[in-house]
Amino acid sequence: MNDRYAPRLMRFFSFHLMPYSALPADYDGPAWVTCPNTFYDPKLGHELYNRYIDELVAAETLGFDGVCVNEHHQNAYGDMPSPNLIAAILARETTRVKVAVVGNALPLYDPPTRVAEEFAMIDVISGGRLIAGFVVGGGPEYYSFSINPAHARERFYEAHDLIMKAWTEPGPFEFIGKHYRIRYVNTWPRPLQQPHPEVWIPGVGSLETMEFVARHRYAYMGIPYFHINVFERSFRLFREACEAEGYEADPLQAGWLVPIYVAETDEQARLEYEEHFWYFVRRLLPGITIQPPGYTTVRSLENILKGAGSFAVNLKTWEEVVEGHYAIVGSPDTVADILATDIHRLGTGNLLGLFQLGTLPHDLTMKNLGLFSEEVMPKLRAEFPEGQPVTGAAAEGVA
Amino acid sequence: MTTLTEERLDTALGKVQLYRAGEGPTLVYLHSAGGEPTHGALEDLASDHTVLSPVFPGYGESEGIEQIDGMEDAVFHLLDVWDRLALDAPAVMGLSLGAWMAVELATRYPERVGRLILVNPVGLHIDGATPKELFGRPPNELAEDMFVDQSHPVAQMMHAMAEWSGDVGLQVEIPLEIVLPLYKSMAATAKLGWDPYLHNPKLRRRLARVTSPTLVVRGAQDTFVPAVHAETYAAEIPDARLEVIDGAAHLLPLEKPAELAALVRAFLDEGTA
Question: What is the ipTM metric for this complex?
Answer without folding.
Answer: 0.85
